[in-house]
Design goal:
six-stranded mixed β-sheet, lactate racemase activity, 20 strands, LarA_C, alpha/beta, SAM-dependent_MTases_sf
């Protein structure tokens, strides 16, 4: 047997696999930049396209900086100070606001913000959690893309200078993260998010990992950011240790194209045939804080599991489902995953968290999903039409035995940090 360490919580989880029956798919390990902060500063001073950040800002202007929320491993403690240092001497700290691009997630607490940004940032500039449900925080920006009604954070909309900061990795229905997603859905109103994530867009064949052009979700996200204006964009690409490998800055769309090309090489791997069993994770803390986020790990596995196969997903879920939002309620609202899909297809209007439920239900309607968590009871998972195992190694061995002679397994130790895809046949829309 061979021991494989899964990314799980903050400590990891070791499992035993039969190497003769198992393919382990991991990112190609790239060393961190020798000086991560210097790499970020270089991206600010030597952009992919357009002038450096300092050349785009004038004294007396107001600045809004968009950053990922606490469910994302963005190195905010490096990126935001680097941006602030570039702005030093041009604009006053009192004229700078860092906006936590929560989308529809909960806001982060004071201690969480300090852990995310560092005490130097918390004490230096104002940090505000975006709230998609607070009408007083939102400004109407018109219809953009394919008829999307666009409400954006008012502080962002009113700022003279708008800077996005994020990181780029494959995304399970938007293609890639980072770039324009730091505007919408990150700083968008609930109505905007619901339309961007409606059943028609989410169910499109190109709304998947690694596809940004021809993907109706990303096409509209990109259109919104382009129409409403971003002054400067900064993204990084991370390795499996969450360290900065490379950084990209400049005009939003050109910068994001360069960053996605780098992320694709780092995080997407071809396989020749689907597997009977796939073991996956949600990349450990902070990404596996709840079941809602763990759908990404399930989706990564779903790319290469046989119809009717088994997905075993290890996610700590210290934050439960979570309890905020409607995800848990929507999951429990129908007797089966197929019934959920049917109900969603009949709805004329998207409800919050429906998109995650829709993807999860589609996975569960064609695969058997078994969870391993540390904070959800079997009865809790049963309401989401999921089973639980307390021993991933045993569950894997049992699933292979049930599949019969010749059964094969795949393990994704880093979950959606590495996206497998079937190399034959090539996938439609497949910018891979």
């Amino acid at each position: 047997m061979k021991r494989v360490r899964l990314a799980y919580g903050e400590t990891g989880l070791d499992i035993d696999v039969d190497p003769a029956l198992t393919t382990v798919v991991e990112p190609v390990h790239h060393r961190a930049a020798s000086d991560q902060l210097a790499a970020i500063r270089a991206a600010l001073r030597h952009p992919v396209a357009g002038p450096p950040l300092r050349a785009r800002v004038r004294p007396g202007q107001t600045v809004a900086i968009s950053a990922c929320d606490g469910t994302r491993p963005q190195p905010r403690h490096l990126m935001i100070p680097a941006v602030l240092d570039e702005l030093d001497g041009i604009v006053r700290p009192d004229d700078i606001t860092v906006l936590v691009a929560t989308g529809t997630h909960r806001g982060n607490s004071g201690p969480e913000l300090e852990a995310m940004f560092g005490p130097g940032v918390v004490g230096r500039v104002r940090i505000v959690n975006h709230d998609a449900r607070d009408a007083d925080q939102l400004a109407w920006m018109g219809h953009h893309g394919d008829g999307v009604p666009v409400w954006l954070n008012r502080t962002w909309a009113d700022a003279d200078v708008r800077i996005t900061t994020g990181f780029v990795e494959p995304h399970f229905f938007a293609g890639f993260s980072g770039g324009p997603k730091l505007v919408a859905p990150g700083l968008a109103g609930l109505e905007t998010v619901l339309v961007l994530h409606d059943a028609r867009r989410i169910s499109h064949r190109n709304a998947t990992w690694g596809v940004i052009h021809g993907n109706p979700v990303h096409d509209d996200v990109r259109a919104i950011a382009e129409a409403t204006g971003v002054t400067f964009a900064l993204d990084v690409v991370l390795n499996r240790d969450k360290d900065v490998v490379s950084a990209f800055g400049g005009d939003l769309l050109a910068m994001h194209e360069a960053a996605t090309a780098a992320a694709r090489e780092l995080a997407m791997r071809p396989v020749e045939a689907p597997f009977d069993v796939v073991v996956t994770t949600n990349s450990g803390f902070p990404l596996d804080q709840n079941l809602y986020q763990a759908v990404k790990g399930m989706s990564a596995a779903h790319q290469v599991v046989k119809p009717g196969g088994v997905i075993i997903c290890a996610a700590e879920c210290r934050d439960g489902f979570p309890d905020h939002g409607s995800y848990r309620e929507v999951l429990a609202s129908a007797p089966s995953p197929q019934a959920l899909l049917d109900r969603i297809s009949r709805r004329k209007q998207t409800v919050p968290d429906q998109w995650q439920v829709q993807i999860q239900a589609r996975i569960q309607s064609t695969s058997r999903v078994i969870m391993h968590t540390s904070h959800l009871r079997d009865a809790d998972l049963a309401t989401a039409h999921l089973r639980q195992t307390d021993d991933v190694s045993a569950a894997l061995a049992r699933a292979l035995a049930e599949a019969g002679p010749g059964a094969r397994a795949c393990v994704l130790p880093e979950g959606p940090q590495t996206i497998p895809y079937l190399s034959v046949p090539a996938r439609a829309g497949g910018a891979r």
